[in-house]
Design brief:
Layout lengths: L3 E6 L2 E6 L10 H12 L7 E6 L3 E3 L13 H17 L5 E5 L2 E3 L1 H7 L3 E5 L3 E3 L13 H9 L1 H10 L3 E2 H7 L4 E3 L1 H16 L3 H14 L4 H16 L2 H11 L10
Helix pairs in contact: 1-2, 4-5, 8-9
């Protein structure tokens, strides 16, 4: 890997954007590497932590990347879409650990994760109108669902930075954490998911995503099917046994 690093320990795959000299801007190589590693985070990975090196999470598209050229639509279709689909379909739950500014496509990359935890010094910026574009990387689909049409419209038209605390208050992200507690908090959250019932987590993801378009009858049917899958898992049997035995469950993700 030229633009990212990956470590895997104790069921936690940590994927780090590693172009700090350009605030981890997305170039063609990074998009390809992210698509590859998010689709296959590693044997035994039960949670993925996506973060950045240095003072930024990701500043968005690298405007000096000659491979993107002026074919903006083609770049989105050929390179961004596979990366974003790999993220939303990752075989383990994904925590975006936003350590610094997340701008443009970098913000929307983070917001597509299952859980977003940000340092309080971090910010989210829909910077696209500053260069005459519209938000992409799923932003126009996802952000109104998170914070509503009015806030989404204002954030996109004005390109105002949204602080991590404001993002948490609006429901854009799960939590904002003081900088001095950020690394410890992310590690604890990742460890909790790595030791949990992985099938349950992934089926929660499926159910919540489907709820946006399902009516109640369809959602009830989906819940029953997904619950049936969980009910046939070893983790469910272990959870019940642990509850009855008044002990902590030892989930294996199976």
């Amino acid at each position: 890997m030229q633009t990212i690093t990956r470590t895997l320990a104790n069921g936690i795959a940590t994927i780090t954007l590693n172009r700090p000299e350009v605030m981890n801007a997305l170039n063609s190589a990074m998009r390809a590497e992210l698509a590859e590693v998010l689709a296959n985070p590693g044997e035994g990975a039960r949670v993925v932590v996506l973060t950045g090196t240095g003072r930024a999470f990701c500043s968005g598209q690298d405007l000096t990347d000659a491979s993107a050229g002026l074919d903006v639509e083609g770049t989105l279709r050929r390179e961004y879409e596979p990366m974003l689909r790999a993220l939303v379909n990752c075989p383990a739950p994904v925590i975006a650990a936003v350590n610094g500014v997340a701008a443009g496509a970098g913000a929307n990359l983070a917001l597509l994760a299952d859980v977003v935890i940000a340092a309080e010094s971090a910010s989210f910026v829909q910077a696209f109108t500053r260069i005459g574009l519209i938000p992409d990387a799923g932003g126009t689909w996802m952000i109104p669902r998170l914070i509503g049409q009015a806030r989404a419209m204002g954030a996109m038209l004005f390109a105002d930075p949204i602080t991590a605390r404001q993002a948490a208050d609006w429901g854009m992200i799960y939590e904002a954490v003081p900088d001095d507690a950020f690394v410890t908090r992310v590690a604890a959250r990742a460890d909790a998911l790595a030791q949990g019932p992985t099938r349950s987590y992934l089926n929660i993801r499926k159910a919540l995503r489907a709820s946006a378009t399902n009516d109640l009858d369809a959602q009830l049917a989906l819940e029953a099917r997904l619950q049936g899958e969980c009910g046939n898992s070893k983790d469910f049997a272990e959870g019940v046994a642990a509850f009855l035995g008044k002990r902590r469950p030892q989930f294996t993700g199976s």
